[in-house]
Amino acid sequence: MRQPAGRSARRSGGERKPREERWAELIEVATQVFYEKGYDGASLQDIADRLGMLKGSLYYYIQSKEDLLFDVISMVHKEGLEVVRSRASVESDPLQRLERVVAGHVEHTCRNLVAVAVFLHELSALPPERRQEVLGTEHAYQGVFRDLIEEAQREGLVRPDVEPRLAALSVLGSANWVYRWFRPGGAFTPEVIGAQLADMAVAGVATESALAARRAGIAALS
Amino acid sequence: MRQPAGRSARRSGGERKPREERWAELIEVATQVFYEKGYDGASLQDIADRLGMLKGSLYYYIQSKEDLLFDVISMVHKEGLEVVRSRASVESDPLQRLERVVAGHVEHTCRNLVAVAVFLHELSALPPERRQEVLGTEHAYQGVFRDLIEEAQREGLVRPDVEPRLAALSVLGSANWVYRWFRPGGAFTPEVIGAQLADMAVAGVATESALAARRAGIAALS
Q1: Gap from B14 CA to chain A (nearest CA, Å)
Q2: Could you tell me which residues form the DNA-binding region (chains A, B) (predicted)?
Q3: Whether residue A137 is found in the same domain as residue A184
Q4: What is the 3-state secondary structure (H, E, C) of B116-152?
Q5: Residues A151 and A164 grouped into a single domain
């Protein structure tokens, strides 16, 4: 679990673990409260009440409600970015990596539904500099998808008429949209949804020969 | 331009056109104000000010701010549904219709960016019955995509491993997400984006033989 920046001195030594747990709990509760009431409608008092803490104790962890929103938003975004970056960097052809990246992003979204919704709905509540900091990460996010599509295109695995920027946004849109319709315990698991969306994403951009090779590989495995 | 339900008696006769124009203007301004300030932050006074009207005159058209939000949301949604339904019902194979439906939906989203954003962000501000009324239409929206994919699957044009419900949501997600990144006057026109996203959607679900036939058809035309 990430620690709030610049507060590590306060959380060293023997009490380290309980404080980190408390921080994780604070983020979880804040996420839920922002989701239910919206950022404008939520107060630090609401969050403290739900944690069974005094409002004043929250200032041990954060300086303002805005800090908390920024932490909720940037944490879920950075975790997602780590998922896609780690999957993008394994040793395999760029189409296989794209498939794994899309599936990973979908699964991460399904598992962090509430935080993703807060990110997408409340980003505009952050002041410009902090929003820009998050958007820089979002740019990096898109970049992971675009770079893989460009790399695959250079290798002849993606059709030459595909525009990598639009393809990246299309694939990201398909995967991000999951936050609006996925319900835990519904008809499809995150893995099934991730696999289907990833398969459609790859098939949507691949050349005929890359697709044929891919299907032959899948057939050989089954 | 659609008229508000139940108010047709007030707008008959010689003055019909100016009143309809005024209504269209009211919807346009309300959309913009809801977008800029959020539904909670916007007041009928803001909307009246921007129209250069007295607030009291708004009650000639609507009974409450909620009426106005409902009209903004249901209008853009119904217009979009008309676009996709009309494109889904032309005489051609279901994959070609799917392509035209996706392109039409993307173009409609690009051209109604602000209203679509209000729809997606403020739907939850409507009371349950009115939200349900809109969601019924959203269900119909998804149904257009799903029905075409199912029809194409029955005809052997879509791969048997594609799950039509997930494919419909994936394609809709890719197309809906446009509202978050499209900027008028940017690098790509609505038509180019619509064509690319539609092409990827079809390629993402089609069988190899359907794709080969499709590419041969495109090659024959060019």
Answers
A1: 45
A2: 43-62
A3: yes
A4: HHHHHHHHHHCCHHHHHHHHHHHHHHHHHHHHHHHHH
A5: yes
Contact A101, A144 (CB under 8 A): yes
ipTM higher than the 0.90 cut: no
Question: Could you read off the pLDDT of B51-107 as tens digits, one per residue?
Answer: 999 999 999 899 999 999 999 999 999 999 999 999 999 888 999 999 999 999 999
- E strand or H helix at A50, and its extent? helix A44-51
Is A217's pLDDT higher than 90? no
Looking up residue A10, the CATH number of its domain turns out to be: 1.10.10.60
B84-90: long-range contacts (C-beta < 8 A, 24 or more apart)?
B84/B141, B84/B144, B84/B145, B85/B144, B88/B144, B88/B147, B88/B148
Question: Do A81 and A5 fall into the same domain?
Answer: no
Contact in structure between A69 and A39 (CB atoms under 8 Å): yes
Q: Do A176 and B177 touch (CB under 8 A)?
A: yes
B201:A204 CB<8 A: yes
For the cut 50, the answer to whether the pLDDT of residue B9 exceeds it is no
A200 to chain B: which residues are within 8 Å by CB? 162, 167, 170, 204-205
My answer on whether A56 and A164 are in the same domain is no
pLDDT score of A5 more than 60: no
B159/B190 same-domain check: yes
Q: What is the pLDDT of residues A52-101, one digit of tens each?
A: 999 999 999 999 999 999 999 999 999 999 999 999 998 889 999 999 99
Query: How far is A200 from chain B, CA to nearest CA, in Å?
Result: 4
Residue type, A165: R
DSSP states of A186-210 as a string?
SSS-HHHHHHHHHHHHHHHHB-HHH
Does B15 share its domain with B77?
no
Cβ contact, residue pair B176, A173, below 8 Å? yes
Dist. CA B69–CA B33, nearest whole Å = 11
Residue B99 belongs to domain spanning: 66-221
pLDDT tens for each residue of B144-200: 999 999 999 999 999 999 999 999 999 999 999 999 999 999 999 999 999 999 999
Task: Give residue A124's pLDDT band: very low, low, confident or very high (50, 70, 90).
Answer: confident
Collect all residues of chain A within an 8 Å Cβ-Cβ radius of residue B116: none
Check A196 against B166: CB less than 8 A apart.
Answer: yes
CB pairs under 8 A between A and B: 92
Considering only CB atoms, A200 lies closest to which of B38, B167, B199, namely B167
In a mutational test of the A interface, the residue from B165, B174, B199 whose CB has the highest number of chain A CBs within 10 Å is B174
Shared domain for B1 and B49, answered yes or no, is yes
Residue A176 has its nearest CB partner, among B173, B192, B206, at: B173
Distance in Å, alpha carbon of A19 to nearest chain B alpha carbon: 36
Q: Please give, rounded to a whole number of angstroms, the shortest distance from the CA of B83 to a CA of chain A.
A: 20
